[in-house]
Amino acid sequence: MMALFNDDIILRVKKMKKIDVKKYLKKQWKEWRLFIFLVIFVVIPFKSSLADWNWVPTGSMNPTILEGDLIFVNKIAYDLRVPLTLHRIAKWSDPQRGDIVVCFSPDDGVRLVKRVVALPGDTISMIDNTLFINGKQLDYKPIDEKYKHYLSDRIIKNSKMAMEDLDGHFHAVMSFPAFDAARSFHQRKVPEGHYFVMGDNRDNSRDSRIFGYVERKSIIGKAKGIITSFNITDKYQPRLGRFFDSLE
Prior knowledge:
The protein is α+β, with helices and mostly antiparallel strands and 248 residues long.
């Protein structure tokens, strides 16, 4: 008799638990369903196809983009794609020399931020960190001092910086003479439908010199500006002067 009584109690407790769980889940669904729908049908498609933001963890684009910058990415700068895919619905332009783009690395699929240096059909070569596009040496001039403002004294002391001219678009580049880097390569021609991309930090960037050309479909947006910036190498101190700054 006692055993039957205990079994009955256990069954009732289990039934109550099931009811409680169902009530809890139903309550949570009512409270969160609007948020879930917004994420699935608004936020994810928006970030995937229209605009996005990316934290930059490395210094491969120094001194233009710094570690800890949160950059704004315009995903409809060149085309419109089906959310969460690389399938293009419409196209209105292509990346140009000097554009800072977000792309996928052709060797491992990692998402990268790099600068377009050479276009389909261009020839490109480099001699001691000096670029030649279609047989013409690019022009270089002294660095704009604003790019040094948030760099450490150690980096400024040990690096060389300049402004590089890509079709009249001057942008900052830097190198580290003490590094063993790929500063020279023979002339090569960029295939149709592909782009040659590089980091502005020429001696500390994994780019087309290593993984080759980037397909047009793998370029998913253009970096337009900096939303916020925190110095991840120094206790995450905010770089207030970089908030809402544009990128060149």
